[in-house]
Amino acid sequence: MEYAVETFDLTKIFENKEKGVKRYIKAVDHVNIKVKTGEFFGLLGPNGAGKTTLIKILCTIILPTEGNAKVNGYDIIKEPHKVRSSFGWFHGETGGRSLYWRLNAEDNLRFYAYLQNVPKDIAEKRIDALLEFFDLTEDRKKLVKDYSTGMKVKVMLARSLLHNPPILFMDEPTIGLDTISAVETRRLLRALNTELGKTIIFTSHNMFEVEQLCERVAIMRDGKIIVDASPSALRDMLRDIHAVEVEIREANNLQEVIKSLGDLQIVKQIVEVKNDPYNVVIRLQVDNEYDAIPLIASKLRAMNAKVLAVRRSEPTLEDIFVKLTRRETV
Ligand SMILES: Nc1ncnc2c1ncn2[C@@H]1O[C@H](COP(=O)(O)OP(=O)(O)OP(=O)(O)O)[C@@H](O)[C@H]1O
Ligand SMILES: [Mg+2]
Fold first, then answer.
1. Which domain holds residue 278?
2. CATH number (domain holding residue 260)
3. For residue 16, which phi and psi values (nearest 5 degrees)?
4. pLDDT digit string (tens) for 20-59?
5. Residue 24: CB within 6 Å of ligand 1?
6. What is the pLDDT of residues 166-190, one digit of tens each?
7. pTM of the model as a whole
8. Residue 1: HSE in the Cβ half-sphere, 13 Å Cα cutoff
């Protein structure tokens, strides 16, 4: 099969009632993606972009309002049972909560294998292999409550593989992990893709993580896919973003300060203004940091702003969005 996942104008509108007033949220808005069998596909987007909603529809947890999708060639609306046996799902945000902490790792896996109707003899062999793959063999009899967060993540990853699905939906698997566990989780995900041939649909906020792991990256915002590119194209996009952050104490003339920074020739665009309780952080895209930093600093000084910092900053998702929108309006 050429495609593991295909969506056709997939749309989800939530209806919320706030103080008796109905509000509609287009969480997923006419999404058309095609994920090739065996591909490591990244879905990148800020909070509320619609990533989890899209994954939940593909997992047949919620129904779309409009449009349709195929997972492993099966129709998510007409063949939900076949779809369900085709994928493993992992949701990082639930942390270790979806495991039984008073059971050890192997009993957790046995229980879930039973729920998924995996025959006992096959389950035992698979559990052994999975514990080995995730390097948990030595700790298999230890209670999950005594596991580190990284180890719990491994058990949950193993759980999503018990029925040997060809497709894995990994919704922010590295969220809340320390750097070392995140690196280890990424290594394992890569191995699941290259050694076991799983198709992986991976979501994250972290551009660098997605760029490192994925063969293709879609960027989602406000329910829409706004970019579908290779990591090298994404890297090129990042390469020519030069960003500077200005931090000042809350100023009375803030609007004036923002406007005069925006008027500087070296400043391409004001990306974001974040108001903390005491400080204001203004994010700017500039032609180059070296010339921009002293010019910005002297401008701020001339305006009597209380400057705490003017510094170079790594590109963020917000920078990409601003860059893309700018391109559209040129
Ligand atoms: N069950 C629901 N009922 C109403 N609104 C919802 C529901 N689930 C999600 N939403 C809304 O849909 C939008 C998309 O949410 P979603 O959780 O899919 O985003 P996300 O990209 O996964 O964000 P995050 O990065 O924070 O996980 C948000 O505005 C959210 O508030
Ligand atoms: Mg989410």
1. 242-314
2. 3.30.70.920
3. -115, 145
4. 899 999 999 999 999 999 999 999 998 899 999 999 999 9
5. no
6. 999 999 999 888 889 899 999 999 9
7. 0.86
8. 18
